[in-house]
Amino acid sequence: MAARHNPHTMEHRLLKAVATGDANLLEQVLGSQSSATAEQGEESCLKGVTAEGSSPLHIAASCGYLDLVKMVCAQDISLIKARNNMLDTPLICAARAGHVDVANYLMDCAIDEQDLRARNLDGETAMHEAVRNGHLPVLQGLMARDRGLAAVVDENGVSPLYLAVASNRSDMVRVLIGETLNDVSYSGPDGQTALHAAVYVSREISESLQCWKETLSREVDDYGRTALHYAALAKNLGPVKLLLANSSLAFVPDNEGLYPVHIAAIAGNVNVVCKFMEICLNYDELLDNKRKNILHCAVEHGRVQVVWHICRSSKFVRMMNARDGQGNTPLHLAVKHGHTIILSFLMMDARLNLNIMNNEGLTPLDVAFSKIHTDYTFSSAAHGTRLEICQISGAQKERRNQAVTLMCPRAFYTSLYLS
Questions:
Q1: In the chain, where are the structural domains located?
Q2: Per the database entry, which stretches of residues form a coiled coil (predicted)?
Q3: Range 315-419 has CATH code 3.30.70
Q4: Which residues, listed in sequence order, are joined to residue 389 by a DSSP beta bridge?
Q5: pTM here?
Q6: Distance CA 274, CA 310 (A)
Q7: I need a labelling partner for 11 at 20 to 30 A (CA). Which of 103, 132, 141, 392 fits?
Q8: Do 103 and 80 touch, CB atoms closer than 8 A?
Q9: How far is residue 136's CA from residue 181's CA, in Å, rounded to a whole number?
Q10: Which residues of the chain have pLDDT under 50?
Q11: Of 160, 166, 79, which is closest to residue 125 (Cα–Cα)?
Q12: CA geometry: angle at 164 spanning 159 and 167, to 5°?
């Protein structure tokens, strides 16, 4: 790794010339230096660098001064290989700044393939920089001269294609995948693919990637998640419908055992959950590594609308009394987390079992008393909250005489249970 700072050895007039684009001054400096070098055998002034390690060619290329770039290269072509403290070459600097004429000239002057594929301190090539900074003409020039650049990934495993997708640049994506190329990398950070990023930004790009490589939708990242897992997080139903053209993807769990429908329930994306419920007809059987079903997940994270939709489904009866790995039912979790509205939804079904104990031997009522004891006081006058034992007349009296209403305003409690 290069030292962070170098001694500044560049002659002041030379720095001024390349920084301001003064071709006349550069010509004077190079002319006088050539004479002195020939007479005294001194090193060329072009070998001088700034404190950041940049050569005159780095500076001229960054500023887009093509005439000066040509003048410097004519004096010392080896400078196209020069690296500054960030290991940038002049070509990387030109690509980052979007100076397509300078970049094209430096590409034409490249001595070998390594000059085009040079990587900086972050492992990025000129193509990475062109894509990240949105310079389509530079990208086109690089692809025309060395398509192998599209296969190079940076230190984090990020490819130019992933960057193009994440930047929502469909024009750049078309350039990168426009022809059938087996060596174009689609990788991203943490083992993701370009399709993982596409579901967040564009249905058009998602469709293009799937047409280009059909297997992308089945690839998982380091967390075991497919693109469908990430689409389930988004509130846009479009990517979910697109990926569910292959319905088997709905049954791929991640490393934590979470299916895409679990992710949607945790995120509170009601429309996405409903779509999965249409596709996954056995959604009530899908459990994560903690043996939680989607109702457990929705209740635990307080997703009121998701719980309401699940309560109206035909599979609710099979999930409402299910125990997770700690023995907790959805009712245990609703009481534990103080989700009063969710608690009311669950209590509306007469088939809810209030006597199920978790692995600690606690029923939902025990959990409620424990929570009141540890977290709350009984100053109901100040806070308008109370714990009450419901007394309901009629056929449901026996079932609900132990029902818990936790942190519930008296008016809400009265209207909900005593009306």
A1: 315-419
A2: none
A3: no
A4: 404
A5: 0.83
A6: 9
A7: 103
A8: no
A9: 19
A10: 1-2, 38, 41, 376-419
A11: 160
A12: 125
